[in-house]
TrEMBL record:
The keyword Cell division does not apply. Belongs to the SURF4 family. It comes from Phascolarctos cinereus. This is Surfeit locus protein 4. It is a multi-pass membrane protein. The chain crosses the membrane at residues 63-85, 92-111, 179-199, 206-227, 239-260. One of its GO terms (molecular function) is COPII receptor activity. Keywords: Endoplasmic reticulum, Golgi apparatus, Membrane, Protein transport, Transmembrane, Transmembrane helix, Transport. It is found in: Endoplasmic reticulum membrane; Endoplasmic reticulum-Golgi intermediate compartment membrane; Golgi apparatus membrane. The keyword Cytoplasm does not apply. GO terms for cellular component: COPII-coated ER to Golgi transport vesicle; cytosol; endoplasmic reticulum exit site; endoplasmic reticulum membrane; endoplasmic reticulum-Golgi intermediate compartment membrane; Golgi membrane; nuclear membrane. InterPro entries: Surf1/Surf4 (IPR045214), Surf4 (IPR002995). Pfam families: SURF4. PANTHER family: SURFEIT LOCUS PROTEIN (PTHR23427), SURFEIT LOCUS PROTEIN 4 (PTHR23427:SF13).
Amino acid sequence: MGQNDLMGTAEDFADQFLRVTKQYLPHVARLCLISTFLEDGIRMWFQWSEQRDYIDATWNCGYILASIFVFLNLLGQLTGCILVLSRNFVQYACFGLFGIIALQTIAYSILWDLKFLMRNLALGGGLLLLLAESRSEGKSMFAGVPTMRESSPKQYMQLGGRVLLVLMFMTLLHFDASFFSILQNIVGTALIILVAIGFKTKLAALTLVIWLFGINVYFNAFWTVPVYKPMHDFLKYDFFQTMSVIGGLLLVVALGPGGVSMDEKKKEW
């Protein structure tokens, strides 16, 4: 069997997977995507005093303002998650979660930490994909003005979401000389580039979902670490951040790459 035959078989598998799962795949994708917001909102509830004291000590803003910050994070994230999962006011929920990302980026000084900044930008990319998914095909920002399908806002939301997902993957790279790490970096980088440029998109995204999920469960098994150890929270954070990336990739599988992609341009060649 030649390389083209193998590629064709893999693409047929991806198409068959999408046909079988198309009824519930978007729901699973949304749940994975908002999982990091859901976990963080719940954590705000159980670590209210610790979060409040941290913000107060960092910004010297006082007990009341620090409490308001924690409350806004808790309410904003949990409300946004509920709206997304219930498919009500999804666009407003996305804008609210965008606001939470911006608020946390400033409050936790993430602007000066490249790794966490890239992760927050990648979360924004996932929300862009969710926003694109919530828009009907026929809608346009400029009602009544005819536009080409490839130049619609939805297509550029999908492009932006795909590209920003790359930033999250870059934070998952392991720079050491072990064979497994080198293989992981090479394969993962190749797959995420295919997703970003929109070439063999559904197959690449589905492969990346399976690969990332396996790595996530193996390396970020926070449930095996006692709750009182700092490593528990660290692994838990990484686990749900990666699950959000998986959710974004599942949306790419469900939606396709959009008009601004090599897959779409191939149809014109």
